[in-house]
Structure formats: C-alpha cells, structure tokens
Design goal:
Elements (H helix, E strand, L loop, with lengths): L5 H4 L11 H4 L16 H5 L9 H5 L6 H9 L3 H9 L5 H7 L3 H4 L12 H14 L15 E5 L3 H12 L3 E5 L8 H4 L9 H13 L2 E3 L10 H7 L2 E4 L5 E2 L12 E3 H12 L14 E5 L3 H13 L3 E6 L25 H4 L3 E4 L1 E3 L21 E3 L5 E11 L5 E3 L5 E4 L2 E4 L3 E3 L3 H6 L23 E3 L2 H4 L4 H20 L20
Parallel strand pairs: 1-2, 1-4, 2-3, 4-17, 6-15, 7-8, 7-15, 8-9
Antiparallel strand pairs: 5-16, 10-12, 11-12, 12-13, 12-14
Helix pairs in contact: 5-6, 5-9, 6-9, 7-9, 10-19, 14-15
Length: 508
C-alpha cells in the first residue's frame, strides 16, 4: 500500500466517459469514448484501503486478489498486475465490462464513500496487458493421455477448458453455434462486449492446445452416449437456455418473441452472419416485458435498429438509488443503475403488469376480430398490435394486486419477453444419457461437480441455474479441478467455490 491516505485525498469516483447518445445509437461500437489507461487511473486505484480483511474478495466468487492488483495499478506495474489478476480470472476483459461488480458492493470504502473502481481496474489491467504483449499462450509442460469433451462455449465452458488444457489434458470444446462464446457471442450486444475480445482469447486457447468444434449440437449431430464413449470425461456447460414464458391468452400471435430470439440475430447481422429468426425492430412499436439486463439490451438494440418507440415493462418497483436497510453491507444490494441503453431513449414503466381482457367484446374499438379474452391485441392477420397493461402494487405477504382504473393499452408491433430462464435444455441428454435433475430442472451434481453418470460433470448455469459471468467462470475453474482429480487422482488446479456456494445477498 503505497499511500495509506489515498482514499482521503481522492474522495470522488471517476467513470469512463461515454460517447454522445446521438452518435453511438448509429453504430454497434462500444458505448464508451474512453478505454484502457487514463490520466486518473492510478489516482483511482490509490483509493483502495488495503483492508486487513478485504471484503471485496468475499463478494467476488473468483477470489480475485483485489487490494494487490489495485496497488500494482497505482504503481503502473502492468505485467505484475496482469500476472496477479490472471491467477484467478481467465477472462477479465469480459468481467471488467459486463460484470455488475459484486466486489464493489462489498468494498469497505463503499460504507461511507463511493467504492473503489475495481471493475475498471480489471479492464485497464487486461487492456494494458494485451497492448504491451504480456498475454501469452500457456501450453502445458507435458501432456497426459486423458481426453475431455466440454459441451458449451460460454464463460464456464471456456474457463473449464482452458484450465484442463493447461493441466495437460486434450480438451475439445463443442459449440452448436457457428462461433465460440455462447451468450457472450450472440446474447450480449456488441456495444457492450466487442466480439474481437472473444476472438483473441480463442486464438490464445488454440495456441495452448484447446480444440474447438463449432456447428455441432450434441444430442443431434453427435449423441451424448457416443460422446461419453469417445472421451475420458465430459463436462456439461450448456447454460440455462429454456426461457421463462408468459401464459397469457394471445401469446401465440405473430410478433411476440423471446429476447434470446431477437438479440442474437442483431449481432449476427453486425458480423455478416445470416439471421436465424430474422426479427427486427425497425419502424415498430416495441414492448419489452422484463426490466433486467437482458431487457436493457433489447432496448439498446431496438433503438439502434430504428424502432419507432420502445417501452420496457417491469412488474417490480423502481430500485432505490442507495443501499436499502434490508440489504446491509457487504451483501449485494439491488439499487437503481441507469444503463447506457436507458440513457439512449425508451420508456420504463415500473409496477406494471400485462393483463388479459375480462370481456373482449367490451372494447371493440381496439380489439378487432377477437373472440376470446386476451392481453394482446391483434389485427385481422393475427399479428400483435397492442398490449393491455395495468398498474400493480406489491402485497405485504404475497403477490401483486391490480390497481383499479389503471388499465390501458399501449401499441406493440413487436413484443419481446425477457423475464429470465428456467433451466438448461436437457431434452436430448435425458433421452440418450439420463442424468439426475434437481427440483428446478438443472443438472444435479455432488460436491465434486459430478453428475449421476460416471465421468460426466456439470458447471455454470446448467448446474447452478441462471447466474452471472463471474459465477460461471468460477464454476468452470472449480469444475476443472474436480475433473483433473477424477482423471489423475489429484490436482493442483484452484477451486474457488463449491457447487452449493451462493452470492452474498439477501432474498427479495
């Protein structure tokens, strides 16, 4: 700790500047006008208090050595900072851009000042490391005769594959899409995560010895039991991809889609890849149901595609601007965070729910050719034209209650459902290589990330359920240690978490 009074000298927190809204909504480039090392970077890093008990490290499941790399940033020792960061994080260029920064919520300085800029320090370290050519392939010193198949190339699958490759095993990653990255590739818009960052990591992993097989869907192009016969171990890292649906009358109308049918096509178009669903928001009234990160991504994407207007519906009330009393430090607090997409336009409606008509015939002016009650309005072609909504209030001990007299209709040519995911798509694996599932429909595993099938392991959202990128990476790293131990009898790979570990946060 070079300056024990650093946090007293620099009390303000500096964020990366963003490009003007009118400029950035015309392209798919990063929304930020600044990146990498800035004149104020070292001053911000000096605000770290080097706590005797660094709760920031408890907030992050990766176990990042945060006070250490913060001080190395302060000293501009970029190679040392990179080495310290890469000890615990395989992909800091991803977490530094899209992680909600659980570590910052647990920062001790954050009790009475804005917390240390840990997330930005991560991004700066890895950007400097790439620019100064410190990031090198790390192939194993020797190879074992063991082979591992990793199914899925999201953050958990890639982290697991990189760790096992470096341990000396021959690892093959299977991906059903045409490019590696999972939802990082096609689920997160390019203006939040430039895909060139993924491409250079894939090249590094290939140089280390990891092999990639795209356009191969396990369970269809190659069966699960055939895959198990070919490899000494199999890791299931297929994510949580079954979306939560809304059972409303009229749901079957044209123009109503899941968010993950809409977002991937937008990124495919950016990179000249043929769309799968060919959905576009151009010249449409867009309604997004669900106000989380994915809903925000839909908002920014629809604006860039030229939507007439975008309305985002959130059934929950607007989050408080500061830490609420029921989320004490150092737990993760759900506070209001205005995303870059929210700054670009659109309308957010809080405490709002979609409802079905009690009497469709009573609203003949807006409901055309409707024989049954519906929350959605349609034209004579069966295409959605509107959505009926109502204000709701949370009950003291139960569900939301509708507020009489607040029913109204908003126009909707395109409705995007963004209310989360239920569990992984296990239909093919259950037919071909049945594994036990937990009560939520995730692939069940024991304390060693092992499924009920010998030699088959699971990590990431497929076993944990829908979660964050830092949890996915930590799961992949921990699963790799378990697989290495299964194959060789021991392991030197780090295991930052156990399968039952959960975020440091309180339930709603």
């Amino acid at each position: 700790m070079g300056d024990p009074r650093g946090f007293l000298k620099v009390r303000t927190r500096r964020e990366l500047a963003e490009r003007p809204v009118e400029e950035r909504i015309k392209d798919w480039l990063d929304v930020h006008a600044e990146s990498g090392l800035q004149p104020w970077t070292t001053q911000q890093a000096a605000r770290c208090m080097d706590c005797g008990t660094p709760f920031c490290m408890s907030g992050c499941p990766l176990g990042n050595l945060i006070p250490e790399f913060n001080d190395l940033v302060r000293q501009e020792k970029w190679e040392d900072a990179y080495n310290r960061l890469s000890m615990t994080n395989n992909f800091p260029e991803v977490t530094g851009r899209i992680c909600p920064a659980l570590c910052e919520q647990a920062c001790v300085l954050g009790i009475h000042q804005p917390p240390t800029m840990i997330k930005n320090d991560e991004e700066t370290i890895i950007d400097q490391a790439w620019a100064l050519d410190y990031v090198k392939p790390m192939p194993p010193e020797r190879l074992t005769d063991m082979t591992v198949a990793v199914v899925g190339s999201g953050p958990s699958g890639l982290a697991c594959a990189q760790q096992l490759t470096r341990a000396g095993h021959t690892v093959v990653v299977y991906e059903r899409d045409d490019a590696i990255g999972g939802l990082m590739r096609y689920g997160i818009p390019n203006f939040k995560l430039d895909k060139r960052l993924l491409d250079r990591r894939v090249k590094q992993m290939e140089a280390e010895g990891t092999r990639f097989r795209t356009n191969i869907e396990i369970g269809k192009d190659l069966s699960w039991d055939e895959l198990r016969d070919r490899y000494d171990a199999v890791v299931v890292a297929i994510g949580s991809t079954v979306p939560r649906d809304m059972k409303l009358p009229g749901r079957e109308l044209d123009g109503i889609h899941f968010a993950m049918e809409f977002l991937p096509d937008a990124t495919r178009r950016v990179y000249g890849v043929e769309p799968v669903h060919d959905i576009t928001a151009k010249d449409k009234h867009v309604v997004v149901i669900g106000g989380g990160d994915t809903g925000s991504d839909c908002l920014g994407t629809a604006i860039r595609q030229g939507a007439k207007d975008v309305t985002v519906l959130q059934i929950m009330p607007k989050e408080p601007s500061s830490r609420p009393d029921n989320s004490p430090w150092p737990t993760y607090a759900r506070t209001y965070q205005k995303t870059s997409s929210m700054e670009e336009g659109g309308t957010y409606l809080y405490n709002v729910d979609s409802v079905e008509f009690e009497d469709a015939d009573a609203d003949k002016v807006t409901v055309e050719n409707s024989a049954t009650a519906s929350a959605f309005l349609a034209d004579e072609r069966g295409h959605v034209t509107g959505l009926k909504i109502v204000d709701v209030a949370p009950g003291e001990n139960g569900p939301f209650t509708r507020q009489p007299g607040t029913e109204r209709v908003i126009p909707a040519d395109l409705v995007l459902i963004s209310v989360g995911f239920l569990h992984p798509d296990t239909s093919s694996i259950m037919e071909q290589m049945p594994v036990e599932l937990d009560k939520r429909g995730n692939v069940a595993r024991n304390e060693d990330f092992a499924t009920s099938q010998d030699g088959v392991f699971v990590c990431g959202d497929a076993g944990r359920g829908q979660s964050l990128v830092v949890w996915a990476i930590s799961e992949g790293r921990s699963c790799a240690a378990a697989v290495d131990r299964y194959l060789t009898g021991s392991t030197e790979l780090p295991a930052p978490i156990v399968p039952t570990q959960r975020p440091m946060m309180l339930p709603r």
